[in-house]
Amino acid sequence: MLIAALLFVVGVLEGWRYRAQMVVASSMLIALVCLPLWALTATIDAEKLLVLLAYLAAHQSGYLVGAYIGAGLHRDR
Q1: Mind listing the pLDDT tens digit for each residue in 18-30?
Q2: Which of 34, 56, 60, 61 is at a distance of 20 to 30 A from 15, taking alpha carbons?
Q3: Full 3-state SS string of the chain
Q4: Which residues of 5-25 are buried (b: 16+ CB within 10 A; e: fewer)?
Q5: How far apart are CA 15 and CA 67, in angstroms?
Q6: What CA–CA distance (Å, rounded) separates 69 from 7?
């Protein structure tokens, strides 16, 4: 749960500062780091895939919150 909370905070910071390409790249990085680590320690089963999806959901929902907050701060001319 701590990892998901940290990913949410990182997502908020990314959404506040960067565009959608950044969250796509960081989501790919999360998947490319988690899957090989889990494959080395044990077999990858449905539970681990659901945990990965939960991590990605936390990260991307944090991005949406950050993008919403960041959109209110920018003033268009």
Answers
A1: 888 888 999 999 9
A2: 34
A3: CHHHHHHHHHHHHHHHHCCHHHHHHHHHHHHHHHHHHHHHHCCCCHHHHHHHHHHHHHHHHHHHHHHHHHHHHCCCC
A4: eebbebbbebbbebeeeebee
A5: 4
A6: 17
